[in-house]
Design a protein that fits this description.
Layout: H1 8-33, H2 45-54, H3 57-61, H4 75-79, H5 85-105, H6 112-120, H7 123-129, E1 134-137, E2 153-157, E3 160-171, E4 178-184, E5 194-200, E6 206-211, E7 222-233, E8 237-238, H8 247-289, H9 305-332, H10 338-368, H11 374-384, H12 391-403
Parallel strand pairs: 1-4
Antiparallel strand pairs: 2-3, 3-7, 4-5, 5-8, 6-7
Helix pairs in contact: 1-5, 5-8, 5-9, 6-8, 8-9, 8-10, 8-11, 9-10, 10-11, 10-12
Length: 411
């Protein structure tokens, strides 16, 4: 039998995150939507200090399961179904995005760079960088959705890597303590030579060129970063520095680099779920004040047009939620989830856009004005459908999996 109920520990994490979102994020969401390029909001500093003390990512992701104190796994833990860090992260992310997605992204420990270190970093790297607020720098002026087209270079010079290139649209690139940078060891080898490197803030040769003015998530900084002969320790590479000798091994090596997204795309989908749910709840509240109450005892075709619209949005949101939970559950249980991660990100990103814009439309002047958060939620939702892979990229990944095609066979 399929059990779609969440276990108590996940519900507890969900409730705690909702309290944070309701008490700390919602009251200041509009205030910081109007302020761009500000330092970390002062109201978040106590929360940030707590998260740093607890290890940042662990607050959202929970504790890894199945281990003994000596580091070995018990027989029961190895065979049992796990509802762990990824599912807990989905619960927390959804609730905090309900409060304010931009403020959530302004907290340390929730950066894509942290996820990369947690996914492919060595125990020593996790210990060294785990408590830092780490951004991820992938996108370049001439390289958007095609991550394999990275032009930033990394050359080994003695005991140091020398990085040269330019990155754009790095979330938390200015506020972060470090940036995980994608760079190529050899441009002629394409994606096989792409590796990721941790560059700590203040490293000579790394310069934040500008922070972008944006449509949504305005409180979250989005930076352009230039690297000019930027030297970092040899040990700051994530994963092996070796370039595989044969084509098949190279393909697997790049797959390891891309594995980060299998964990983070469900998290981005969770952001869309939280934003969309927030808009839907506000809309229902406004409609109820006007005497429009959803009556679930009637069929869709016996309902008013407004009621039917609400039902459709709720159904789409629930479908996206279940896809997201499945992708996160698979990650917790060490099952390959690349297809499911892209499916949930594509579905939730599109649903988030559709719901928030429809809510603005339904509520008319109240939806379009700043009296409520609906117009802000609509603006915030757009980037969630774009970053970490656009709608088109996600659909392409899903198609490759369904058809059994490689990236070279289906572009």
């Amino acid at each position: 039998m399929i059990n779609l109920e969440l276990p108590q520990k996940l519900l507890t994490a969900q409730q705690m995150a909702h309290q944070l979102a309701k008490g700390a994020f919602r009251p200041i969401a509009r205030k910081y939507d109007k302020i761009e390029h500000c330092p970390t909001p002062e109201e978040l500093i106590p929360i940030s200090q707590m998260m740093r003390a607890m290890g940042g990512q662990a607050v959202l992701g929970g504790k890894k399961e199945g281990g003994k104190k000596d580091g070995s796994k018990s027989e029961a833990a190895a065979d049992s179904v796990k509802n762990g860090a990824n599912l807990m992260g989905i619960m927390a992310t959804t609730e905090m995005a309900w409060g304010c997605c931009g403020l959530m992204l302004s907290l340390p420990g929730v950066g894509l760079g942290n996820a990369a270190i947690d996914t492919v970093g060595t125990p020593e790297q996790k210990e060294k960088f785990g408590k830092l607020y780490c951004a991820m720098a992938i996108t370049e002026p001439g390289c958007g959705s095609d991550s394999a087209a990275v032009q930033t270079t990394a050359k080994l010079d003695g005991d140091e890597w020398v990085i040269n290139g330019e990155k754009i649209f790095a979330t938390a690139g200015d506020r972060g303590d470090a940036v995980v940078v994608w760079a190529t060891l050899d441009k002629s080898l394409g994606k096989a030579a792409i590796k990721s490197f941790v560059v700590e803030k203040g490293t000579p040769g790394m310069e934040v060129v500008r922070c972008e003015d944006k449509m949504g998530l305005r409180v979250s900084d989005t930076a352009a970063i230039r690297f000019h002969d930027c030297r970092i320790p040899k040990s700051n590479i994530l994963g092996s520095p070796e370039i595989a000798a044969d084509a098949e091994a190279r393909k697997k090596a790049f797959g390891g680099v891309m594995q980060t997204f299998d964990n983070t795309r469900p998290m981005v989908a969770a952001m869309a779920l939280g934003v969309a749910r927030g808009a839907l709840e506000i809309t229902r509240e406004l409609l109820e004040k006007e005497g429009v109450n959803a009556d679930y005892s009637k069929s869709l075709y016996n309902s008013s047009a407004l009621e039917a619209e609400i039902y459709r949005m709720e159904a789409n949101l629930e479908g996206a939620r279940l896809l997201t939970l499945k992708a996160a559950w698979m990650a917790d249980n060490k099952q390959p989830n690349s297809k499911e991660a892209s499916m949930c990100k594509a579905k939730a990103g599109r649903v988030g856009n559709d719901i928030t814009l429809k809510c603005v439309e339904i509520c008319g002047a109240l939806g379009y004005s700043e009296s409520w958060l609906l117009e802000k939620l609509a603006r915030d939702s757009k980037i969630i459908d774009i970053f970490e892979g656009t709608q088109q990229i996600q659909q392409l990944i899903v198609a490759r999996h369904l058809l059994g095609k490689s990236s070279s066979e289906l572009k």
